């Protein structure tokens, strides 16, 4: 009984651990970087994604930016950008963003806040032109935490802090006016997951996420656990425990006695013994010519008859 309880406890712990390691991170999106639209925890941006999805067409960008059809009416959110990494952005990547705005798209880039002595998020370059203090930039809010300017046929917006766009930021601050200004006159919203390194690979994980197969994975884990349980313990009731005393076998004498009792009747025992004795005795033995009285073999007292027989021999 204790073994079965232990097996059940181990299986429950195994399933719980599997859920914490595999299923739960997929549900909360904790496996993705901060400010990803795939995260539902406080530092994700799933709330913004789903809120905008109720009134506009919303999608995520996993493939190359060159493959999307962006034009007027398309706003692209790039959240959680490191200012230091952005200042060292590769020219080809920067050109991809410029091509989007050249087609009329609105590009919203929200940076991570910095508290060190490094240059601020406005010290970013587009085509080698510093944004800080340059003409053409106008604030979108009274604190000048978001700046906007035209770029090509579209616009680019820089936000100094991504936190107001996070799940926790939307819950605590909920600056709806700023969100409306960031979205602009958009009909379609694209959340860039590509810059987080979340790209389409055709992997099993992507298919599971796309078709919401996390529950099926949990069911498979449960079936595997039950199979292990079935292999380790029988579902039938256990047999009653036998005696702990050792069972000793018979020696050769006891075995021969039992064999004689099953094969020879008691009344014939003395005659059979006499006949066998005659076969195994020496040829010259005088007792071969002795013919005991048949009445002697019929004596019910085998011991007395045997004694009388021995006197005659």
- Mean residue pLDDT: 75
Gyration radius over CA: 48 Å
Summarize the helix and strand pattern as letters: HHEEHHEEEEEEHHEHHHHHH
N-to-C span = 70 Å
Low-confidence stretches: 116-132
* Total count of domains: 3
User: How many strand elements?
Assistant: 9
Tell me about the largest β-sheet: 7 strands, mixed
Helix content: 40-55%
Query: Given the helix and strand composition, which structural class is it?
Result: alpha/beta
Beta-sheet strand percentage?
5-15%
Describe the global form: rod-shaped
* DSSP helical segment count: 12
Spatial ordering of strands, largest sheet: 1-9-2-3-8-7-6
List keywords for this structure.
313 residues, 7-stranded mixed β-sheet, single chain, 13% strand, alpha/beta
Q: What is the topological layout?
A:
Elements lengths: L1 H27 L17 H8 L3 E5 L12 E8 L1 H5 L3 H12 L3 E6 L13 E2 L2 E2 L7 E2 L6 E6 L2 E6 L7 H6 L3 H8 L4 E5 L11 H8 L2 H19 L19 H12 L5 H12 L13 H4 L4 H11 L1
Parallel strand pairs: 1-9, 2-3, 2-9, 3-8
Antiparallel strand pairs: 4-5, 6-7, 7-8
Helix pairs in contact: 1-8
Description:
The chain has 313 residues and is α/β, with parallel strands linked by helices. It folds into three domains: 1-32 and 198-234, no CATH class; 44-197, no CATH class; 252-312, no CATH class. 42% of the residues lie in helices and 13% in strands. It has helices at 2-28, 46-53, 83-87, 91-102, 167-172, 176-183, 204-211, 214-232, 252-263, 269-280, 294-297, 302-312; strands spanning 57-61, 74-81, 106-111, 125-126, 129-130, 138-139, 146-151, 154-159, 188-192. The protein has a seven-stranded mixed β-sheet with strand order 1-9-2-3-8-7-6, with helices on both faces. The protein has a two-stranded antiparallel sheet with strand order 4-5. A hairpin with a 6-residue loop joins strand 6 and strand 7 (146-151). Helix 1 packs antiparallel against helix 8. The chain is rod-shaped and about 145 Å long. The protein starts with a helix and ends with a helix. Residues 116-132 have low confidence and may be disordered.
């Amino acid at each position: 009984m204790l073994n079965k309880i232990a097996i059940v406890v181990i299986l429950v712990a195994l399933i719980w651990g599997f859920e914490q390691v595999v299923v739960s991170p997929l549900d909360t999106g904790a496996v993705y970087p901060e400010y990803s639209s795939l995260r539902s925890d406080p530092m994700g941006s799933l709330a913004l994604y789903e809120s905008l999805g109720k009134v506009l067409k919303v999608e995520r960008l996993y493939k190359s930016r060159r493959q999307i059809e962006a034009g007027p009416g398309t706003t692209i959110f790039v959240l959680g950008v490191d200012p230091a990494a952005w200042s060292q952005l590769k020219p080809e990547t920067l050109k991809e963003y410029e091509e989007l705005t050249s087609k009329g798209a609105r590009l919203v880039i929200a940076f991570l806040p910095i508290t060190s002595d490094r240059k601020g998020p406005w010290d970013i370059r587009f085509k080698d032109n510093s944004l800080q203090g340059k003409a053409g930039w106008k604030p979108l809010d009274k604190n000048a935490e978001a700046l906007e300017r035209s770029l090509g046929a579209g616009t680019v917006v820089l936000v100094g802090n991504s936190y107001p766009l996070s799940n926790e930021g939307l819950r605590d601050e909920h600056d709806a006016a700023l969100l409306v200004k960031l979205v602009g006159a958009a009909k379609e919203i694209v959340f860039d997951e590509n810059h987080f390194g979340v790209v389409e690979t055709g992997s099993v994980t992507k298919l599971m996420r796309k078709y919401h197969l996390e529950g099926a994975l949990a069911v498979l884990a449960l079936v595997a656990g039950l199979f292990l349980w079935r292999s380790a313990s029988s579902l039938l009731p256990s047999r009653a425990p036998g005696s702990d005393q050792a069972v000793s076998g018979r020696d050769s004498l006891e075995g021969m006695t039992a064999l004689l009792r099953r094969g020879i009747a008691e009344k014939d025992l003395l005659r059979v013994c006499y006949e066998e004795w005659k076969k195994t005795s020496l040829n010259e033995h005088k007792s071969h010519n002795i013919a005991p009285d048949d009445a002697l073999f019929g004596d019910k007292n085998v011991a007395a008859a045997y004694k009388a027989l021995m006197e005659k021999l």
